[in-house]
Amino acid sequence: MASGIPRISSVAALGLALFVAFTFRQNAPHDSTACRYLPGDEEWPSNDDWQQLNASVSGRLIATLPAAHVCHDPTYNAEACAELQESWYFPWAHFDHPAAFMSAYHQNASCDPFGPQSSSCEPGHSVEYVINVTEAADVVAGVKFAQEKNVRLVIKNTGHDYLGKSTGKGALGLWMHHLKSLKFIDYTSDAYTGKAVKMGAGVQAFEAFEAADEAGLQIVGGQCITVGLAGGFTQGGGHSLLSSKYGMGADQTLEWAVVTANGTLVTASPTQNSDLYWALSGGGAGTFGITLSLTAKAYPDSIMGGVSLAFQTESINDDKLWDAFAYFHETALPPIVDAGAHVQWVVWGPVFYITEATIPDATEADMREIFALFTDYLTTHGIPYQMNVTSYPTYLSHAEHYIGPFPYGTAPSAQIQGGLMFSRATVARNNTDLVSLIRDVATTTDFWIAMYALNASRALPSSPNAVLPAWRDALSYLLAIHNWNYSVPFAVMDEKQRLLTQEVMPPLQEYASGAYMSETDFMNPRWKEEFYGENWERLSEVKRRWDPEGLLYATTAVGSESWEVAGDGRLCRAGSVQGRVGLGWTDHFTVGRLKGLLQGYPGLF
Questions:
Q1: At what angle do helices 395-403 and 205-214 cross, to 10 degrees?
Q2: Which family does the similarity line name (predicted)?
Q3: Domain chopping of the chain, boundaries
Q4: Which of 316, 530, 555, 602 has the fewest Cβ atoms nearer than 10 Å?
């Protein structure tokens, strides 16, 4: 590997070994005009090319190694491996590593912390190089290099991504994680006058919440507090504990600083490059441009009412459980969200558990009154329940209790999932059939059910945006989840993914009005209509205008229909890979094969 380009590991031998592997690997034939290049291709950028890129970004180019290489020979480190094994199921294992990402499916079992120490650690679906972005010029350099060298380009902040958007085999990654600037300002425009927050693309929800608290403010951010706010959260729409009062995350956007696919830094607002502003505000991340910063609305802090509630029945298939579920969903829930609540609940075995309900400006008495319809039902039907009611003085203290502890929370991320939203009208007309389907999933498969509810029509955006219109009519959102099992062969989990896409979700989809593009099944065959709805054609026009060459690709993003991933992980124009011999994502030289290849070179191993 080129000297002067740092690795995240200092093990020079492995770096050289990987370079030799890439040099000697035989890739499948490809049409160089239709596919992005991979290491080992004759057209792959030379060492001098990478050196020049490294110099242009002041030495911030990183030649990556998989995060879990510390769990495998020849770079095994027992202490580091043990730490990684404990954290691997959680988002924070992945966001401080330049190439790591949390989607277990896209990790493809190529290099995780749980295989034998002697097993090989393959690059798999990881990016090849990463630019640690600190300023716009770094992004411009990466964009121009990828365009000129026909290399896949990937944007990553935290890697908090269930759909595999923040990685790509053989790609050059733009790592936005260290753009942590954050300040609160007074903002004035034709659309909005008031407090605002301007934050770099690397700012995560917990950082923004803590800074807002110090300023006496609150902002709309993810209930998973490690998400990056300017990326997939806001650009994907973004639901929040505050959404029934202030709207979706994308409803808060005032302006964006963006590097476009031709390497130009622009401002996107309702009055400047308004089509790009519209698309970035809810139309999906990773495809219209590379965001450097987001300016969004901020609000005065206030007291926050909260509720958690749980009850348990004799079994998961107990009529009492599902009758109560049905009553809550159809009768009790609409007035709760209309009072300004965001509510999330799960069915885990025989337990129904409201993990969080949030209403800004509400007292404990308010919360008890708002939930009385449901608690009266439980009492009348002889269902004992436990209920905790709170009213915290600030949003941060409320969030600490319900979605903390800060800074990272406790929610795991190693899972596969399918997600769908249900409109009020659908629930009112079809709740019995819908709950019967949900019950069937919970009782006859090993997927469990998580749901949340909000009223995203109570506070509409001050400027038009690309938020999926179905959010405005949605009552609830369902997630069917299977926790990832790293102890079984990948083929077992691949079958779970097939089951999710082909059997679990289709009956529910018949009742769905859409899906949240950041929390759903990346293999969903209906992704265009469910993720984008009536916005699809206009979003496609914006994509063609701002990225006519299709440089920016992300799974299920607008424009992704023009590309396909070949059997060897290579990104190719749609229709250009027919008849290709795929090698599979992890068909790399193993360390063992490399040892045999390099036995004549003393000191390497």
A1: 150
A2: Belongs to the oxygen-dependent FAD-linked oxidoreductase family.
A3: 12-177+558-597, 182-300, 304-533
A4: 602
Query: 85, 114 in Cβ contact below 8 A?
Result: yes
Question: 3-state SS string over 458-486?
Answer: CCCCCCCCCCCHHHHHEEEEEEEEEECCC
Mean pLDDT score, 303-311: 98
- On the 0-12 / 13-18 / 19+ scale of CB atoms within 10 A, 432 is exposed
Neighbours of 407 (CB within 10 A): 14
CB 567 within 8 A of CB 298: no
> What confidence tier does 31 reach under pLDDT thresholds 50, 70, 90?
low
584: left (phi over 0), alpha (psi -120 to 50) or beta: left
The enclosing H or E element of 142 equals: helix 136-149
Integer Cα distance of 528 and 506 in angstroms: 15
Give pLDDT tens digits for 84-98.
999 999 999 999 999
Structure tokens at 43: 């057209």
- Look at phi and psi of residue 507 and say left if phi exceeds 0, alpha if psi is from -120 to 50, else beta: alpha
Scanning 404-512, the segments in alpha helix (DSSP H) are 424-444, 490-499, 505-509
Give percent above pLDDT 70 in the chain.
90
Checking 134-141 for CB contacts under 8 A at 24+ apart, the result is 134/60, 134/178, 134/179, 136/257, 136/259, 136/265, 136/292, 137/57, 138/57, 138/60, 138/174, 139/174, 139/259, 139/290, 139/292, 140/259, 140/263, 140/265, 141/53, 141/56, 141/57
- For domain 12-177+558-597, the CATH architecture is 2-Layer Sandwich (3.30)
CATH number of 182-300: 3.30.465.10
Supply 11's token pair.
Answer: 């093990």
Domain 304-533: CATH class, spelled out: alpha beta
Contact 80, 70 (CB under 8 A): yes
